[in-house]
């Protein structure tokens, strides 16, 4: 008899994603903490756009492993503080495909695969890996992109000081219609304007105390 591979059910998929999140924590704490903040931002933004709790939670789980592919990128590239060479950038830009392939290998729900695969696509078609444009990019990935960039902008990196939330809001607003889906940006800007202390603390201990983290049952 031929064995038929079946997709994992919802709970199994979520457990696999949480296991991968823990593996990211072991490999690269900076990426893990970034991913936890992005998960919360993505959850808030999806909720703002009218997604139900279960859908928003699944997006948060995808956010938690969105950079899973980076665990297979060499340390010299991953932790390089200077600008990447063209070849290094090409290798780094493989991470959405690597992450998606790992998830496909685990037969998780395709929702997670496509969200991870397309989180660096741009609304104007200039992103990677596929150069998808506009609504051809899954909405989950369009939401994740905004949450991801907001956290990158507001975080300290070896090569830059953190932006204030206000500066990040301005930058994301400026790139609506080029990098980002304008509808998603409009919701995000409204969310920022109506949520005091939207910006999450960078300290893991503080992050653990957030009710939203418990709600999402993130590790
Ligand atoms: Fe990424």
From TrEMBL:
Q: By its UniProt entry, which Pfam families does this protein fall under? A: HD_5
Give the residue range of the signal peptide: none
Query: Do you know which CDD domains this protein is assigned to?
Result: HDc
The record, for InterPro entries, names: Cyclic_di-GMP/3'3'-cGAMP_PDE (IPR052020), HD/PDEase_dom (IPR003607), HD_domain (IPR006674), HD_GYP_dom (IPR037522), HDIG_dom (IPR006675)
Residue stretches making up the HD-GYP domain? 9-204
* Superkingdom classification of source: Bacteria
Q: Where is the HD domain?
A: 31-153
Name assigned to this protein:
Uncharacterized protein
User: What taxonomic lineage is listed for the species of origin?
Assistant: Bacteria, Bacillati, Chloroflexota, Ktedonobacteria, Thermogemmatisporales
């Amino acid at each position: 008899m031929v064995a038929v591979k079946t997709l994992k059910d919802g709970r199994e998929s979520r457990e696999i994603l949480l296991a991968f999140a823990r593996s990211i924590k072991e490999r690269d704490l900076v990426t893990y903490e970034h991913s936890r903040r992005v998960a919360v931002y993505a959850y808030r933004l999806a909720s703002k756009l009218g997604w139900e709790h279960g859908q928003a939670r699944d997006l948060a789980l995808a956010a938690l492993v969105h950079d899973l592919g980076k665990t297979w990128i060499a340390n010299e590239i991953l932790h390089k503080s200077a600008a990447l060479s063209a070849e290094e950038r090409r290798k780094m830009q493989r991470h959405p495909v690597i992450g998606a392939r790992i998830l496909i290998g685990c037969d998780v729900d395709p929702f997670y695969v496509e969200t991870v695969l397309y989180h660096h696509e741009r609304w104007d078609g200039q992103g990677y890996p596929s150069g998808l444009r506009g609504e051809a990019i899954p909405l989950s990935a369009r939401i994740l992109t905004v949450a991801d960039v907001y956290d990158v902008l507001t975080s300290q990196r070896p090569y830059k000081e953190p932006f204030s939330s206000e500066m990040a809001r301005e930058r994301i607003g400026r790139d609506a219609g080029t990098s980002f889906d304008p509808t998603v940006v409009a919701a995000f800007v409204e969310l920022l304007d109506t949520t005091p202390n939207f910006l999450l603390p960078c300290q893991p201990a503080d992050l653990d105390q957030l009710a939203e983290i418990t709600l999402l049952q993130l590790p």
